[in-house]
Amino acid sequence: MQLDLFEDLEDLTDFESQEYKVCDTCNKTFGIESFYNERKTLKDGSRNKKSTCKECYIHKVRVRVFLHTKHRQEKDAVCEVCNARTTLVLDHCHKNDTFRGWLCNSCNTGIGKLKDDVSLLEKAIEYLNGKRDTG
After folding, report:
1. Contact 42, 54 (CB under 8 A)
2. What is the band of 3 on the pLDDT scale with cuts at 50, 70, 90?
């Protein structure tokens, strides 16, 4: 019986030696093998792991493919924020996977950097308006 107890401790040692990572999407902890490698190779030949677990990553890809299929971009479309005539990307809500529109990469990235949060966008506008004269 005591030997069984020590065998369990050996299993814990194996558990502690494994690498784990938290998925940015579902916030669950998984073994490092549950994450895809990034495309970019580092100087030492290794690769970082993606921040999203394989299951969430596959879900994201399926959502994007579905939305692209359902919402075709019009031929002469312009960015719905800045009216730029450039390559557009599909913008969608990450919380409920719904299509919002077609934006240029800069506008889409800007909204994403502000976490798709209207109150943060409003604070950014207030900030810019307050700094207008210091220019």
Report:
1. no
2. low
